[in-house]
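Reading a protein record of the kind used here takes little practice once its layout is understood. The fold follows as a row of integers, each naming the local backbone shape at the matching residue. With these conventions in mind, the following record can be read line by line:

_____
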Amino acid sequence: METLQQDLINKPVKKLFFHFFFPAVFGMLLMSVNMLLDGIFVGHGVGEIGLAGVNLAAPIFTLILAISLWIGIGGATNFSNYVGEGSLEKARSSFTLALAIFTGLLGIISVVGYLNIETVATWIGANEETLAPTTEYLRILFSFGWILGLQEILSIFIRNDGRPVLGMVSLGVTSIVNVILNYIFIFKLGLGVYGAGLATVIGGAVGVAIFIPHFFKKQIVLNRMAWAWSKQLATRILSIGFPSLLAESGGFILIVGYNLSVAATLGTDGVTAFSVINYLHGFLFLAFFGIETAMQPMISYYHGAKKKLEMQETIALAEKTAVGLGLTLFVIGFVFAPWLVRLFGVNDASIIELAVEGIRLFFISYLFIGISFVYMTYFQSVGKVWSATVIILCRSYAFFLVYLFVLPKILGVNGIWLSMPIAELTVAILIVFIVRKRVRKQLKVTQVHSSSH
């Protein structure tokens, strides 16, 4: 039970950050690779219409993940704050209450979505050509998508409980199972899009099973349950995790906005081209949540333990990591765009040209996304929910939607692809010149004030 606390107290910030960061990034990438693999298998085994259908259903997968991050990050932030204070029963109660809230929310969404499945498919952009594959995939997500959400929320808490590598292992096994079952269901049994969805949720169920032994270990906090629930605790979970909901739901807005925009401008070819970009973005974007999931346990604990100098070090390290990660992903997209498009089995020359150009422009956004995540996570982890919320509302909603409406009128198709990068650039500039200075000043003043006592 003392292991995680001793690590947070005794280990250098840099060593501890990467202890959390690498498993978190690989874990998030492994989770998102399930949708990527579905796209690759569907593209080769079903065709371009099937690929477009799975892409149109992707916002519901994003919604499930958003709720998992909302409740998971909210509950785990409270968990780490309480561990930092030494209040272990309250920490355990944060876990059980978060699970209860998650179960209730996903239950409602699943039932309502399944009963209105064709309406949902039409609302997220399906037309007569793509309605059948879209509803096939949605049927699986509304029936069993909660398994994928449960896997993510357990991964968040287990990481905060001192075992970040276990989450990575679980998600790695999930991906392996998904690959095997995708091949069997699509190519051997001919189950098409439905088979791709089924492979994903079965893989998730195996991943959840891997987590179960963790809760029987003696040296961890979550080796027993606690039920000291309160309205105040529920409110803290929902409010602190809310920026994570907005951040991931921003992906929902992005997908629907882009699908509607390219469908109106370019038709089904445009939707298919964006489906490739979206698969890649859905895969790579979650790497930035790795920064959030590395920072959150550290900042939350240091905040609870009043270790302000360590908070400064963590933020500085996260900034450098975010810039390096963004540059790496941009270069990958720019250099390997043609190969990445062909990976999905797209053979139409016009669609390939659209997708390659789109990737090279859209991936510019990765140069700036990380800064938003660093400061959103900082504010979230210290309980300043409104500040974190403003950052997310600006980058994922206000600026993006304005640019998506205006830029295509000025730049044509390129304006569609550049809407997200320019929105990210705008927010990054505001953060660097306004928010960053205030945070540094506040932590410096607080540190001096604390040391004077």
